[in-house]
Amino acid sequence: MEPRLHKASTISRRRFIQTAAAAAAGVTGSLAAPAAGVAWDGGDEHRMAVVPPKPIPGGPTLPSGLQIHGWQPGDPTVTLPFSHSTLKGFDLDPSTITDFRGFSALAYHAGTATGSDGATYDLETHMTVLQGSYIGSDGTRRFGTFSFI
Amino acid sequence: MDLFDPGSGSQVHDINGGILSSGLFWTLPLDDDALRVSRDGRSAVLDVEELQVIESFRLFAPTNTPGTLSYHIEWQATGAFVDRGKDATVAPTDPAAFLASFAVARSTAEFDVSEFGFSFTSNADVSSDRGFAEMGRERNGAFLT
């Protein structure tokens, strides 16, 4: 039986993203340690935290050396209206996590948004949702739901 | 999710899920009940409330600030399910190192973002009509063997 993600994972999600933010900002120390995002965060009611999945091994590498563990699948005849990025084809994995089996949905949206400054902006997205079995970074098979944002 | 200034075309906001030290890229966990999929797999609805995200302002910019994102996305398949991917006969780093049954879809969405000093709400015109959407089931990595 696969452990399911804890239902009340709001604090866990916050801790998870704090870890991601720290890693993105180059913060060192305990916040940036891989296990920090999944460790007990001190809350009595949130002891079960999300064990992160592993990234797909592939993906393009930027000139800066950063590897993007994700692809840009989709109809290669489509060029997105605002980023002007052309989708790379149908036979690219939309998942950003490896050792995954389950439901997958992808969307590139375009439209507009209204800001709190009263301005209208052009909006573009690349959103994915994944739900199913995965082998977590601890080597355990689990069930979870994830979104690429 | 990106916002662009319609006058200059420049990107002015970049909402993303951050990068873990493992390399996990812009991917965040959700509650399982955030996603509802129809029995035939041809429609899905995703509802997420106040997910903690990062605002980078521009793609891979060094300046970050925290924010929250709420969103509602709907997918409706518009085509037949077709096989995608090339299984484990290609290298694990190959973009086709997966197997899937995907259908092209249409997607509509609503987004609300709030951060210190700024917020925005998507308008009713947001859809995949000028983009692309697909949905289905897939497997990769250890689940290919």
Description:
- The complex is a heterodimer of chains A (149) and B (145).
- Chain A has one helix spanning 10-24, and strands at 100-115, 120-124, 127-135, 141-148.
- Chain A has 149 residues and is mainly β.
- Chain B is 0% helix and 57% strand.
- Chain B has strands at 2-4, 11-16, 27-30, 35-37, 43-55, 65-77, 82-84, 98-115, 118-122, 127-140.
- The radius of gyration of chain B is 17 Å and the shape is globular.
- The two termini of chain B are 34 Å apart.
- Classes of the chains: A mainly beta (149), B mainly beta (145).
Question: Would you kindly provide a brief summary of this structure?
Answer:
With 149 residues, chain A is mainly β. Chain A has one helix spanning 10-24, and strands spanning 100-115, 120-124, 127-135, 141-148. Residues 5-47 of chain A have low confidence and may be disordered.
What labels describe this entry?
heterodimer, A: 149 residues, mainly beta, 2 domains, four-stranded antiparallel sheet, 1 helix, B: 145 residues, nine-stranded antiparallel sheet, 0% helix, globular
Task: Provide mean pLDDT of chain A, rounded.
Answer: 78
Beta strand count of chain B = 10
Rg result of chain A: 17 Å
Determine the fraction of residues in helical runs of chain A and give it as a percent range.
10-25%
Strand content of chain A: 25-35%
Portion in helices of chain B: under 10%
Largest interface between protein chains, with number of residues from each side: A-B, 96 and 93 residues
Question: What's the N-to-C terminus distance of chain A?
Answer: 29 Å
Protein structure class of chain A: mainly beta
Number of helices of chain B: 0
Enumerate the spans of chain A where pLDDT stays under 50 for 5 or more consecutive residues: 5-47
Give the helices and strands of chain A as they follow along the chain.
HEEEE
Largest sheet of chain A: 4 strands, antiparallel
Could you say how many structural domains of chain A there are in total?
Answer: 2
State the oligomer: heterodimer
Structural class of chain B: mainly beta
Low-confidence parts of chain B = none
> What is the domain total for the residues of chain B?
1
* Biggest sheet details of chain B: 9 strands, antiparallel
Shape assignment of chain B: globular
Count, helices of chain A = 1
